[in-house]
Amino acid sequence: MIENKLIDLIHVTKRYGNNTIIDDLNLYIRENEFLTLLGPSGCGKTTTLRIIGGFESPDEGQVIFGGKDITKLPPNERQLNTVFQKYALFTHMTIAENIAFGLKIKKKSKQYINDKIKYALKLVNLDGYENRMPDSLSGGQQQRIAIARAIVNEPKVLLLDEPLGALDLKLRQDMQYELIRLKNELGITFVYVTHDQEEALTMSDTIMVMTQGYIQQIGTPEDIYNEPKNAFVADFIGESNIISGTMIEDKLVNILGCNFPCVDVGFGKNKPVDVVIRPEDIDLVKPEEGLMQGRVTSLIFKGVHYEMEVMANGYEFLVHSTDLSPVGSEVGIKVDPFDIQIMNKPESEDEEAVMPLE
Questions:
Q1: pLDDT digits (tens, 9 = 90+) for 97-137
Q2: Tens digits of residue pLDDT in 150-174
Q3: Are 234 and 242 in contact (CB under 8 A)?
């Protein structure tokens, strides 16, 4: 039995006409977990969130919440609240009236509501904003009010559907840290939808990567980034060099005609594989010190590092380094064995696109 399991989606399938959006999805979410549903547009992540929230009904499968089947329960009878990308604040109401809206429907006392408004505003660092109108606030402040309105209802789960998508980069980064702080202070479960890989890596305890209605991988941010299960995950989470190779034997892979030591075993001998190497894991050294030689063809200064392209054995490697190698210079390529990730090649294009989690 999974410890502290709060939500369980069991064999959930959702179709619109002949189009299957989610196909036999199984997922559990722990209490006090920050789970991010990550994937490209149309992968099924928002539909999954809406099924958890009760805004959509699955065609097949169950939604279990705290051990009870809530598949057919309407949203207002579930112990959760949703924060959308469009803040959906009532423009004719003050901030206090916006936050109090759900509590008034529940017929809470005036004193209780006032205490909750003050508590919520303090929590989102907007003390004293009770009498302001929504249109006098910045986008980041409006989003905080939307979150405050959700948390005063004391949900067990907060569902967030791309809530930072409309904010500029600096505000988005600030709000990421605010959400982490809120989650830790409130001790509630966050289920977060985004297509932004950096957001997912920054905030999550667990990331679920989806495409075309299938789960590709579930794991910690470190697992997803460092140990991608397939080429889709490797390519979607951060930048990668994904190269066709041949597994010569355990712990030795041939990449573009050169043998590289690695740590992977169990792929067999002389088997075609996909090799993933992150740009920051490539060391550019003197040509004679490298396992492969190449020439720098492009150079961009990114602030934190230099981004270079290196043509070697017919493949253009993407390299991130704090050390500069000028365009035109001859370099050697070295990679630590632990930084070479080996994956089985998909047997077909369909498998490459949608590889269900084993």
A1: 999 988 888 888 999 999 999 988 988 889 999 999 998 99
A2: 888 889 999 999 888 777 788 788 8
A3: yes
Domains of the chain: 5-226 (3.40.50.300), 239-353 (2.40.50.140)
Label residues 317-337 b or e (16+ Cβ within 10 Å = b).
bbbbeeeebeeeeebbbbbee
Q: Which ranges in the chain belong to alpha helices (H)?
A: 45-53, 95-105, 110-123, 139-151, 169-186, 197-203, 221-226, 231-236, 349-353
User: Cβ-count burial of 144 within 10 angstroms (0-12 exposed, 13-18 middle, 19+ buried)?
Assistant: buried
DSSP assigned state of 80:
E
Burial of 350 (0-12, 13-18, 19+ CB in 10 A): exposed
pLDDT digits (tens, 9 = 90+) for 169-224: 887 888 888 889 888 888 899 999 999 898 999 999 999 999 999 999 999 999 99
